[in-house]
Amino acid sequence: MRRAEQELDILEQISQILGDGLELSQLFQRVMALLSDRLHIQRASLVLWDQASDQLRIVASIGLSAAEQQRGRYAAGEGVTGQVLASGEPEVVRDITKHPAFLNRTGSRDLEETHTTNVPTSFICVPVNDGGQTVGTISIDKPFIDEQHLHADTRLLTIVAGSIAQTIRIHHLIQVEKDQWLEETQLLRDNLRGKYKFDNIIGSSPAMLDVLATIGQVASSRATVLLLGETGCGKELIAKAIHFNSPRVDHPLIRINCGALSPQLLESELFGHIKGAFTGAVKDKIGRFQAAEGGSIFLDEIGTLDPQLQVKLLRVLQEREFERVGDHKTVKVDARIIAATNLDLEDEIRKGNFREDLYYRLNVVQINLPPLRKRREDITRLIDFFLDKYNTENQRGLRKINRDILNTLLRYPWPGNVRELENAMERAVVLSTGEEFSVDLLPLQIRLFSKQTRSDSTDTSIESLASRLAEHAIREYQACEGQVYDLVIGEIEKQLIREALDCNSGVKVRTADFLGINRNTLNKKIKDLGIEAED
To answer: Tens digits of per-residue pLDDT, 482-525?
Structure first.
């Protein structure tokens, strides 16, 4: 083959190698192995500038041992390699034993033996340029033939260096993007860890403190957790808190709603399928369990699971293995299961809708989330949190909420729980035009509840009751003229003190403080009115 045809063939093969997208040193190894085979190269080195050490170092080589490659380090301008980096121009050495700048830094060449042979060793070093900057060099050793071959090899190596320079640039850009992606991923993980820390979950009521204490204990284990509670009470939030405070935090948390898909689609989503398993299965697909390997999987609405899928899930819980749809190969899985439902599973078992053995497998640690109406102490803090969140998102300033509206929100039963409260606060912020929180900003059902409670409370208010009592007393004590005031006020005082004592467990000091009277006054009234009370 003529030299020109040989060079074209070499360059074509090199372009294919560089297009494979492997790691840079592997690409260079393959390129140099090709050149070594076709051009009889003895040694070859890819030398790049290392900013950390502020020197050139060999990153890949042919014909050098690991120790020899490690010794291949040069300052800018040092030796033939350093001079090429400094000048950006190729350097051709006809005989390495006769060139004063040739250092043999790697120690891979026996210069004494080379000096005594009839065939000298030539050294060609060309720059690797990225734009207008020299970022490294490529060098080769080969037996000297003649000046024409030396010139042709230099030209070919310069072309190869240009191709490798482009590959280096692409790999550098990919590495920069990879580093940025890793940094962003770590930042996201850190944010998630902070967001789902236990002390960031709003809940100071006794019921929520019990929940937080339980998840604090269970998070570090691999135990299966069953979350029970009404819709909207925060089951997914608790599942995330368990995962992000567990040793599995660096692995994924995969969520799937078991009630949102048909049984056939859900089986494929959970366990995956192979190509041709059913119509539309055009390629293999992994399921959510495989995607959650090493992490956690959150199975929401587990109570709606199809009976056949209940059997397969039971096997995963027992054996930690499954088969993909259409496949006979067993897949092992290590994923922690966190299940949730708003159904009474024991009632579903009695109805025959849920397997009892699956229930006991899921019910290793049961956490009952209280509805919002049973943790009213948390409503005020939740309101503040959601107002801050949606004010920031929508650039609003809704802050001032009066006592009447707050009382309405505290009395409202919240059938949709925290989710309903969050939606109500978001609606109020979006519709607001200032800082004042008016009743018109509340959803219709809450406004209707507010009107109803005001109407009901009118008939049972102190003023209304007092008015009816006065009317009744006037009619009742017609024959007791001159004594009506003492009779009525005395009876009211007697009943009020009895109720206050009962409310304060019979403790007189607390009862006196509650009523706002002196303890001696209370003792005198108890004696005068004939009220039985503990001393």
So the answer is: 788 888 888 888 888 888 888 877 888 888 888 888 888 888 88
- What is the pTM for the complete model shown? 0.55
Give ∠ CA 514-520-526 in degrees, rounded to 5: 75
Could you tell me the sign of the dihedral formed by the alpha carbons of 167, 168, 170, 171, in that order?
Answer: positive
Average pLDDT over residues 249-266: 91
CATH number of the domain where residue 513 is located: 1.10.10.60
Q: To 5 degrees, how large is the angle CA 187–CA 193–CA 196?
A: 135
Q: Are residues 261 and 274 in the same domain?
A: yes
**Are residue 209 and residue 313 in the same domain, yes or no?**
yes
Q: What is the Cα 291 distance to its own chain's centre?
A: 14
Three-state DSSP at 332 gives strand
CATH number, domain at 313? Answer: 3.40.50.300
Structure confidence by residue, pLDDT tens digits, 130-180: 877 888 898 888 888 888 888 888 888 888 888 888 877 777 777 777 777
Cα separation values, 138 from 54, 124, 134, 162, 198, Å: 18, 8, 11, 10, 57
C-alpha to C-alpha distance for 467 and 469, rounded to whole angstroms: 5
Nearest in space to 322 (alpha carbons), one of 252, 279, 270:
270
Tell whether the model's pLDDT for residue 295 goes beyond 90. yes
- Whether 368 and 207 have beta carbons less than 8 Å apart is answered as no
